[in-house]
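Running log. JK asked me to keep both predictions on one page so they can be read side by side. First protein, sequence followed by its C-alpha cells:
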Amino acid sequence: MLIVSVIIIIITKSSIYAQTTPSYPLLIGDTVPTFKAATSQGIMYFPGDYQGKWKILFSHPGDFTPVCTSELLEFALMQDDFNALQCELIGLSVDGYDSHMDWIASMENLEYKGHKGIQIRFPIISDVRMDISRMFGMVHPHSMSTRTVRAVYIIDPSNVVRAILYYPQTVGRNMEEIKRLLIALQAVDRYNISTPASWEPGDDIIVSSPQTKEAAEWREKASANGILRCLDWYFCFTSLP
C-alpha cells in the first residue's frame, strides 16, 4: 500500500507541473517564464527588471558580423524612440560576455550613417548555454544549429508574447517596421480595435464584423451617417476615438 501511495503522489505532482509550465518554444499568447541571465550590463532578472514596460527581445547570429553590426547600430539609433513608447530593448546571442564587450566597444567607435560615437545602451544577453535561445525558439537547426536566427519577440507589460518575427541570416531587419508593429499593438490594447494591413498611426482602423442583429443595424446607420466607411457589409473602417 505504501508503494501505491507514493506512485499516486508522483503522478499528481507531474500532472500539476505539466499544467503550469509553458510549452517551448514560446508562441504568441504565451507568458514568458521568469529567468536570470548574464548580460553586457550585468545580471538581468526577467521580467522583474522591466515592470510595467513593453519589451523587445531580439537575437542575432553572432558578434563581429556585418549584418548584425548594422542591426545593433540601428537599434541604438532608435532606442530613444522605443523608450518613448515605454519599451525596452534587449539583445541576445550565444557569444560570451567578453565578446559582447569588445564588440560594443568596436561599434561605439564606428561612424554609421553620419553618426559618430553611437552608444549601445541596452543589454545584450550572453546565452552561451543556449537555454534562453531554445526557450524562445531562436535556434532553428535546419538554418544554424549553433547560432540564433534573427528573431524578434515583442512582449507586453503583462509579460505575454504578442508578436514574433523571424529573419534569415543574410537579411537585416527593418527597425521602423518593428516600431510600427509595437505602436499597433499598443493601439489595439488601448482602444480594443484591429488594424488593417500597412496601418500607420493616424490611419483608419478596422471595425469588427457584426455578430448580432443590433450590431448590424447600428453599422448600417453609422455608415449612412458617415461614421463608418464600408466597402462591403463585413469590411468597414473608422477613425480612432
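And the second, directly underneath as requested:
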Amino acid sequence: MTTPSQSNRPPSLASVLAAFGAVYFIWGSTYLGIRFAIETMPPFTMAAIRFLSAGAILFGVSLWQGCGLPPWIHWRSALIVGVLLLVSGNGFLTWAEQFVPSGVAALIVATVPLWMVLLDTLRPGGSRPGIAIILGLVFGLVGIAVLIGPGNLGGEPVDVIGALVICVAALSWAVGSIYQRNAPQSTSTLQNVGMQMLLGGAFLAVGGYLLGERMDPSQVSTRSAWALVYLSLLGGVVSYSAYVWLLKVSTPAKVSTYAYVNPVVAVLLGWALGGEVLSPRVFLASVTVVGAVVLLTVSRKQAPPTAAQTRSLSTSSGERAA
C-alpha cells in the first residue's frame, strides 16, 4: 500500500520526460502508422479494429479501478462524441491517407485549434478574438492554402479531395471537442475515452461493411499488422495513459505543447521512414501551420481555463484525430 508521503512525492524527471516523449513521439508517429496499416487493410475496418481493441482495454481498466457501469446518459454523450471524433474525425483522416502523405495529413489535422476558435467566434455570444488569435487564424488558413494550392508552389501538388476530407475531419473533431465540454460524462477520463472508442469503433465497423470493405487476413502484410498493433496499444493505450498522467503532474499549458510538436514529428517521420518528399511546399506549410497553432494555443492560455475547458482538454485530446 502506498503511504501518504509516497503518494505526495513528486514524480521523477525521468518519468516525466518519458511521458512527454510518449505523447510527442508516439502520437506524432500515428499518422505514418495509419499509412502503413491501410497499405493492405481497408481504412474504416482498420480504424474499427484499432478503437474497439484500445477502447475495450481502457474501459476494462476503468471498471477494474472501481468506476462502475456508466448510466445511459453517459453512453449517449460518448456516442455523440465518438461519432464526431472517431468516425467522421479519425475515420475520414484514415480514408484520406490513401491519397495524402501522412506528414501533410498531420499538418491539416493540426488546424483543429483554428476551427475551434472560429466556431467559438461565430457562435451567438461568442468571444471576440484578439490580435494574436486573428494572426493565428490567418497563418493557419495560409498554411492550408499552401498545402493544397497549385503545383508551382514547389513539390508535387496534394490531392485536393483527400485534403478537403481531412479538413472536414479536423472540423468534426473541433465540433466534438466543443460539444463534450458541457456534456454529461463520467468523472473517469479513461472510462469516457474507452466508451467513445467502443462506440466509435462499432460505427466504423458498420460503416466499413456498408461501404463494401472486406478484410482478408491472408492479404494483410506484416508491416500493416504491426502498424495496427502499434496504433492500438502504443498509440491508444500507452500514450493516452501517459497523457492523462501528465495532466495530473504537470500543467495543461505544458501538456498542450503536443499540438505543435506532433505535426513536426509526423512530417519528419514521413520523410525519414515513409519516403515522403519534404518539399519547399511542405516545409513552408509546416512553419506556417505550426506557428499558427503556437499563437492560438498561447493566446487561449492567457485566461485561466474553466473546469469544463480543463475536462475537455483531458477527454478530447486522447487521439487528436489520429
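Observation for JK regarding the second prediction: The two ends are 37 Å apart (CA to CA).
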